[in-house]
């Protein structure tokens, strides 16, 4: 069997185990480049690039949020929705420990701990999305509805 020409991360293993079709895309990672940089590198709309954000509540519980690259998360709105006092971005060591992924390479698939996943509902209206494959500079193109075949996702409307 020929070795794939892209990284085989825990995320890729999970997608393969669930027989989810995807197209790998590697690009030159840029520190603090974010979704604008990756969308420019791949020549796709930043709205289709989905960022994976790890938020932490006041009890130090982590939550995964999937959001369009060109939107921000209303942390207050999401906190109200999930009935916690507040949500803040998880510190890098906390996020890495919970997910097993390096900052800038966090995928919602194949996380070290099972975490609640909240996804902006409008991302499921897109034909294709580009989401982190578990490594910096590595996005996977997939059908957004396939996320629900792998993860217990709660749809939310917290994009601003």
Task: Tell me what you see in this structure.
The protein is an alpha/beta fold and 160 residues long. The protein has a single domain (10-156), classed as YbaK protein (Alpha-Beta Complex), CATH 3.90.960.10. The chain is built from 5 helices and 8 strands, in the order αβαββαβαβββαβ. It has helices spanning 10-17, 34-42, 75-82, 92-99, 147-150; strands spanning 23-26, 49-57, 62-68, 87-89, 117-120, 129-135, 138-142, 153-156. Strands 1, 2, 3, 4, 5, 6, 7 and 8 form an 8-stranded mixed β-sheet that branches. It is globular, with a radius of gyration of 15 Å. The chain starts with 9 loop residues before the first helix and ends with a strand.
Summarize the structure.
By secondary structure, this protein is α/β, with parallel strands linked by helices. It has 5 helices and 8 strands.
Question: Would you spell out the secondary-structure blueprint of this structure?
Answer:
Blueprint: H1 10-17, E1 23-26, H2 34-42, E2 49-57, E3 62-68, H3 75-82, E4 87-89, H4 92-99, E5 117-120, E6 129-135, E7 138-142, H5 147-150, E8 153-156
How many whole angstroms does the radius of gyration measure? 15 Å
Tell me the structural class.
alpha/beta
CA-CA gap between termini: 46 Å
Point out poorly predicted stretches.
none
The fraction of residues assigned to DSSP E strands is 25-35%
Within CATH, the superfamily carries the name: YbaK/aminoacyl-tRNA synthetase-associated domain
Can you tell me the CATH topology? YbaK protein
- The helix fraction, in percent, is 10-25%
Number of strands: 8
CATH architecture annotation: Alpha-Beta Complex
Question: What is the H-and-E element order?
Answer: HEHEEHEHEEEHE
Mean pLDDT: 95
């Amino acid at each position: 069997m020929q070795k794939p020409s892209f990284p085989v991360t825990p995320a890729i293993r999970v997608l393969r185990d669930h027989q989810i079709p995807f197209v790998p895309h590697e690009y030159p990672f840029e520190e603090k480049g974010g979704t604008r940089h990756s969308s420019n590198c791949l020549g796709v709309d930043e709205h289709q690039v989905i960022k994976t954000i790890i938020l932490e509540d006041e009890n130090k519980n982590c939550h995964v949020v999937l959001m369009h690259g060109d939107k921000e998360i209303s942390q207050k709105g999401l906190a109200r929705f999930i009935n916690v006092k507040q949500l803040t971005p998880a510190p890098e060591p906390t996020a890495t420990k919970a997910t097993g992924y390096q900052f800038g390479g966090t995928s919602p698939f194949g996380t070290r701990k099972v975490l609640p996943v909240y996804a902006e509902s409008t991302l499921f209206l897109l034909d294709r999305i580009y989401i982190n494959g578990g490594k910096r500079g590595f996005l996977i193109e997939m059908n957004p509805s396939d996320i629900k075949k792998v993860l217990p996702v709660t749809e939310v409307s917290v994009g601003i």
